[in-house]
């Protein structure tokens, strides 16, 4: 570490330390720098070093350390105020507010001392001529902390009434504090109104909108605005995650997870910050954190997960139940210390109320991967034995009602009846239906039970139902793979039931059941031999026989209506096997509609989903969307998680395809949620998250998209999703990070994506990603690495014959050369190469007018940038013939640029006038005011009668930008005229 030998070196070291991450390491360095400052023998150096130390303490978890340097600063001010320059004088008064707030957060500082300090602050502010606004704000904080609502309201009103001056907190911090008080008083809507400018980025500072996002979460949930709460959690947590001093805001995000069914994510958040459990430099934020830890652990315990291992204080393992008790005890002990200091019970009451909060949403999907912890399995209850007073008759009646109506959960109802009737005396019919439905629940393993049910039906005197049970058994044999055996078995059953029906020995329902089972089995065989026309024909004939038997004879029998609907859908299935997709789609639609008409919409889901797939294949986007919406509507609460996830994801893709990114994002969010619920987080869930990230990105919701894409990325693999999905995820994430100003991370993502794309046969994506990586590396302050990326992109653009891409890469490298060893000479060479490449390509594109015009525009832009580069390469303050020669060359380049843009007509008008104005300022530099005035008049003439953007297809934002450009150009030209006239 370089020794500090002078004041400039000290200031440089302090500036460097200010840019380091918050935390003990930065604080320790500030302490070293104070020691170095004391050795310089310069009072102002010590003052600045103390101010630096105070600042880093305030923005860390060691806030309690800031009182000592402040006391020393105040003593130095009282003894020798002339040692303080204007900035340090301002800073000394400014940090009074930090110290006031800091005292409140330290329970060992007596309340009387705090009140005395508040009076001292008021006195010193009055002497310095400052408004009392900051003082009243500090008084409000004291009153609010101790629970003196009346005094807090008076101070709040005085705070807002006082004039804003140099000592007032920034707008963002003030609005956050005002909104916090409104929320504390239950005025959530007013709080959010106050926070809105901060949340929208109108007012920002080092800790805003970080804390406003966190504070808004519970109020938004209480107001029934979960979508905004979700967005603020994703955006806000991204801001506080890396900010060590924001434990209180971090706690609010953990609390949000506990109150929205996102307990697993809450645990992930705790695991990221183990030091937050024990850091004691800021007791108030530790109290806040431990309170929400207790809340989250109680929530887990209430879900039956009290013995689950959870993140906790280092040194031992913790279960949720143990951590709940520990956190509660620590929090209440801290609260008691505050209350003892304050002489009230207010802090403890608030802590207990916070720990006792109840969930505000059963489950609010966030889009990021976080599967809700499953409670341990509940051991099965002892079966209920039937007695004379048993509810068995009611259970049997309910089961029969559900099964006769083909209602969901009929199988479960029969299982409940069977459990209740374990040793009861039942007639054969009851036992037959129990066995029959148990067999249905077993699928391919239920063959033997179907035989048992058939025997019981026969014993009960129902030979038709016995045949139907055996036919169901034959079908499950087909499902298990024994199709030939099933065909053979059902043939005899089919003959028997038709004979029995003809002799009026059984009814329509039983006969239709056997005929349908035969049709199902033959359809199954047709699937296995898709090229066997005879199998298809036999299956279709069997299905039509169902319709011939039942259609028009259903009456009010739901089971028979279901046979008609299923037969229609089966004909669609067979049409699809035969290659007639349009006919298949029509029949699936007919079958689904028949199920809905019969009052059985849940059976329509499968066929609407199949119809959606067919419609998509046929290019009918509208029908695809309709069918998917219908499937979700018809399935309702009966849809299982995997199917629900698939339908939402398909609908999201359809909506995204037609440009509705907002609704597409909603369905992708649902798809991710249900995929997690289905245990498919790493497969279907990852794909849904990837899509959700893309839809959020299209809406410009960069922070939310980045959180979602970062969550998806570990699970998006080439093996499962394809390397194209991996590249797209990295690409989108790079775009988000770039928009968020995280340029180094954006470059990393873009380079990783480029490395995969470099192996693809088509290299356009590789070139684009390399180019984007160059942009990010340049913005991250890594010019050498950026130049390598642009060089790679340029080689690829050249190989692809993409001259615009090559030109842009060369121009970018020219600008980077000014920052690297190449210097102005290499920068000139790069720009000259870009011009040659553009001119060559323009000459070769004579027959392609659209390409030629694009290249003319690129050439004009390259001349313009070349001119800008030339002027910027001149050292500041340099003069003489050499400088004049550079300006002359730049002016020549601008003239060429203006001519190029002029040849393109009105479409390049703004580019042309921009070049003219830049040239005009150079004319003034070269002492040619008349030429500058001529260029200014040229610009004004170009806009004479021009009202701005007149493209009727342009949106309002684009039109507004056009009009703004016109106004700015005119204003600059008029200003140039005045300056040139004065010269």
Number of strands: 2
Low-confidence stretches: 380-389, 949-954
Termini gap: 53 Å
Any idea what the shape is?
flat
Q: Percentage of helical residues?
A: over 70%
Q: Describe the main β-sheet briefly.
A: 2 strands, antiparallel
Rg from C-alpha positions?
38 Å
Strand order of the largest sheet: 1-2
Number of helices: 45
Strand-residue fraction? Answer: under 5%
Can you describe what's shown?
Residues 949-959 have a biased composition (Acidic residues). It comes from Streptomyces tibetensis. This is Tetratricopeptide repeat protein. Residues 949-968 are annotated as: Disordered. InterPro entries: TPR-like_helical_dom_sf. There is one protein chain. The chain has 983 residues and is mainly α. Helix content is 74%, strand content 0%. It has 45 helices and two strands. The protein has a two-stranded antiparallel ribbon. Helix 24 runs parallel beside helix 26 (558-577) and helix 36 packs antiparallel against helix 37 (764-779). The protein is flat. The chain starts with 6 loop residues before the first helix and ends with a helix.
Descriptive labels:
45 helices; 2 strands; 983 residues; Tetratricopeptide repeat protein; 0% strand; two-stranded antiparallel ribbon; mainly alpha
Architecture blueprint of SSEs:
Blueprint: H1 7-18, H2 24-40, H3 43-58, H4 67-79, H5 86-104, H6 111-128, H7 133-146, H8 149-161, H9 171-184, H10 188-199, H11 210-222, H12 226-240, H13 247-259, H14 263-272, H15 283-302, E1 309-310, E2 318-319, H16 320-342, H17 346-355, H18 392-404, H19 410-420, H20 428-442, H21 447-459, H22 463-479, H23 483-502, H24 508-528, H25 533-550, H26 558-577, H27 581-597, H28 601-617, H29 621-635, H30 641-657, H31 661-677, H32 681-698, H33 702-712, H34 718-721, H35 723-739, H36 743-757, H37 764-779, H38 783-800, H39 803-817, H40 823-844, H41 849-872, H42 881-903, H43 909-925, H44 929-942, H45 956-982
Antiparallel strand pairs: 1-2
